[in-house]
Amino acid sequence: MSRAIEADSPRGQRGRSLRLRVPPLFLLALVLGLPSCGKQSDSIVSIALNPANPNILYVATNESVYKTRDGGTTWERISTELSSRRVLTLAIDPRHPATIYAGTMGDAVYKSPDGGQRWLPHNVGLKEHISVVNQFLFDPRDTEVLYAATTVGFFRSADGARLWEERMTGMKEVHYVVAIAQSPTDPQILYAGTSGGAYRSSDGAATWQKINNGLIPDEVLEASMSLGVNAIMIDPVQTQTVYAGTTKGLFKTTNKGETWARIGQSLPDQYVSSVLIDPTNPNILFAGGRAGVHRSQDGGQSWQAMNDGLETLNIRTLAMSPRDPHTLYVGTNGSGLYLSTDGAKTWKRVNITLASAESASAAH
């Protein structure tokens, strides 16, 4: 299973348009970058950290969603309404951390108001063919306002996902939107990473402008030579500085995307799946991809491998503790979940071991 397969499924006329417009090379890159269906919990698709309690986190795998309340010592499987859904992304409301959103492959958005005990679909306003959600983003001023990156564009909700509105003005093509980011100092400024490069909005997603100068030439894009943006991160101090992790390398802009420069040419593999910025020192970056985790201490100019303890170097996702930037989690495509408490110098595997009562139940 892969997002590329779902993106190629005809769901109405616009779904057929998407199938034609998403460049084949980008779909191939998605297949290579996504985990294959394997043993239970071997591939970690998404990690969500509770901002109020560092011992609580959620992970999505190929076959389920798991929750720990004790920092990863024991886990419980969330097996209610999400039991038959392939979850691609999890997001915790930063102001109300018992509220969790799940973006799925096949059934769009689910929301839990109680820490994952109950899940309800929240898809009103999403088109019938929108079934794959790649990322959520909360407005820091009001977390009832949130955004969703989907297979056919960008959507906004102003009421906690009860109703969604399409926000695609300026995105002339129907793009597979993978990554989204919002300026921490001016929430009207948003970025979208798509199958056709990057877009910026300066009016709260009312309109969008393509910002591919230095990222991918128009003639290359028009020839379906795709450069998909997998991750976008904004420098929390110098907010005009933005990083884009793509299927063909890592890029940086210092002028809000007006021009991009390629960085990280020394990375052994140019497929970048995840990017993190240390909020206490924005010169420290982390990049994950098919060659493991790499760290930069000079804003992306030079990189060092940080893979001590990792059994698999194919990285699907990175997460940083909102309380301690030295505490990081890695989700791999094949050997599960890892934790570092020393800024990625060393990693220790976190086994997803079910609590004894559930383990006994599963055995029967």
Give a verbal description of the structure.
The chain has 364 residues and is mainly beta. 10% of the residues lie in helices and 37% in strands. The protein contains five helices and 28 strands. A four-stranded antiparallel β-sheet has the order 1-2-3-4, with no helix packed on it. It has a four-stranded antiparallel β-sheet with strand order 5-6-7-8, with no helix packed on it. A four-stranded antiparallel β-sheet has the order 9-10-11-12, with no helix packed on it. The chain is globular. The model is unreliable at 1-39 and 360-364 (pLDDT under 50).
| Structural class assignment | mainly beta
Number of beta strands: 28
Low-confidence stretches: 1-39, 360-364
Just name the CATH architecture: 7 Propeller
Considering DSSP H and I runs of 4 or more, what fraction of the residues is helical?
Answer: 10-25%
Overall tally of domains: 1
The biggest beta sheet is recorded as: 4 strands, antiparallel
The side-by-side strand order for the widest beta sheet comes to 1-2-3-4
Number of helices: 5
Radius of gyration computed on alpha carbons: 19 Å
**Beta-strand fraction estimate:** 35-45%
Mean pLDDT: 85
Overall 3D form: globular
CATH topology: Methylamine Dehydrogenase, Chain H
For the record, the CATH class is Mainly Beta
**What's the CATH H-level homologous superfamily?**
YVTN repeat-like/Quinoprotein amine dehydrogenase
- CA-CA gap between termini: 28 Å
